[in-house]
Amino acid sequence: MTGRPVVLKLGGELLEDPARVKAIAKVVRRAAARVPLVVVHGGGREIDRALAVAGISVQQVDGLRVTDEATLQVVVAVLAGTINTQLVARLNADGVPAVGLTGADAGVAPVKQAAAHRSTTGARVSLGLVGEPLPGGKPALLTRLTGAGFVPVIASVSASKAGGLFNVNADTLAANVAARLSARRLVIAGATAGVLDAEGHTLPLVDAAATRRMVKAGTASAGMVAKLAACRAAAARGVSDVRIADGRVPATLLAALLGETTGAWTRVK
């Protein structure tokens, strides 16, 4: 399939219930029949459970996971192993020609170690083995796969040019892939109806100034801070249609992927 692709990021919270995964697979099948599609996924709560079993404490800053060597081993096993394989199997069972990948595959999303993160409190915090995706040209592997009708499904781990493995925030990776593919649309799908105001209503549009106000006022959750930063980065790099959408409602998710103008999502400028 030719044309500019759509990038869909699936939050890990959407992938925990088999019935919901099956519903999402049907949406992906319908969308992929009309537009080239690339899927990026996270898996935060599944990672948290695996860390608890291993007796490893969870540390996060502004929705970003602080990752030491022991944590990284769990992250890679859960994201690139369990979640990616299960999602690819479900998609293929529903007629989607899905191919499981990570950011480390053939230049999909090479990274460098992220610099210390300046938190919303102003403190600088080392994130450890967390990767920051590098800018660059179009990922040839993704272009070839989508051009041949396949749906790449990318787990949010990657590698440096020296071969070191890194955990990568899934929103950040999705934004990088969307920008480098010159995607027509980036849809960040999670378990909320977009960005919500103080009364719980979906904001139809947020820009950089609104984002700064929400972060300063503390009305954006830690996870939403990371999503907004990734969305703003994608928009700044030329992705003209960036949405944070409710992935729990199949009709809403499909409408967002196909570029409908109204629905339970927030456009990010």
* Tally of helical runs: 8
Q: Class, according to the CATH hierarchy?
A: Alpha Beta
Strand order of the largest sheet: 5-10-2-1-13-15-16-14
Annotated CATH topology? Carbamate kinase
Say which CATH homologous superfamily is assigned.
Acetylglutamate kinase-like
Terminus-to-terminus distance: 28 Å
Category from helices, strands and their pairing: alpha/beta
Tell me what the CATH architecture is: 3-Layer(aba) Sandwich
Structural notes for this entry:
The protein has 269 residues and is α/β, with parallel strands linked by helices. It has one domain: Carbamate kinase (3-Layer(aba) Sandwich). The chain contains 8 helices and 16 strands. The relative contact order is 0.17. The model has no long low-confidence stretch (mean pLDDT 93).
Task: Give the topology.
Elements lengths: L5 E5 L7 H15 L4 E5 L2 H11 L5 E2 L2 E2 L3 H25 L4 E5 L8 E3 L3 E2 L5 E2 L5 E3 L6 H8 L3 E5 L1 E3 L5 E3 L2 H11 L4 E6 L14 E2 L1 H10 L4 H15 L5 E5 L3 H8 L7 E4 L1
Parallel strand pairs: 1-2, 1-13, 2-10, 5-10, 13-15, 14-16
Antiparallel strand pairs: 3-4, 6-9, 7-8, 11-12, 15-16
